[in-house]
């Protein structure tokens, strides 16, 4: 089944669901484009007061859909277009959205999922949730703008561990780091997220949007500071370790770096 971003409404709250059956909601290129379009439209919806972002089937998002990677990642221009024009614009749309966004995090929150969660205002997670960005195992770095978003949200120590050592952390560590607002039992995450969203929705909507614009400006400053890295950021596209990491993953064998 192809991945999809599903949007529903619960009164003044939008429910955005990442859905990719059998892939732990891994993000396809089409899903990135749909996510961007959804968030670009939210700011113009005067009746909308909060967004809940979640995954289907007990997982948030396992990362990117690696089965797509051989079709574009080994060409520098296509790789740049993917990260800058698809992933980057989707994350930018989330950061620019002036409607509060609550992340309902269950199960795995890895790679692309961590980036998406990092763009949310409030993050609630189940006790068994796991967080990381183990792309070092795939032989490539996180794109500069994406790394800036994650670094700002998780903090320097955890960002370095995740990106340099492929570290994966539990919910308690992420709560201690300030990434999560609250940990709840796994079977209560959905109810908690919806209740929190309706709590926001009951408050002054114009004030919430004004606060979001200030917070968005602060978040944007971190991304803008990495702009000087972009000219050479995707030169690794045809590198041996990049090809080896992705090929090994798809072949279900350990990579040889």
UniProtKB/TrEMBL annotation:
SUPFAM superfamilies (UniProt xref): ClpP/crotonase
Pfam families: ECH_1
Record has Isomerase as a keyword: yes
Lineage top rank: taxon: Bacteria
InterPro entries named in the record: ClpP/crotonase-like_dom_sf (IPR029045), Enoyl-CoA_hyd/isom_CS (IPR018376), Enoyl-CoA_hydra/iso (IPR001753), Enoyl-CoA_hydra_C (IPR014748)
GO function terms (MF aspect): isomerase activity; lyase activity
Keywords, in A-Z order: Isomerase, Lyase
PANTHER family reported in the protein's UniProt record: ENOYL-COA HYDRATASE, MITOCHONDRIAL, ENOYL-COA HYDRATASE-RELATED
Protein name as annotated: Enoyl-CoA hydratase/isomerase family protein
Source taxonomy: Bacteria, Pseudomonadati, Pseudomonadota, Betaproteobacteria, Burkholderiales
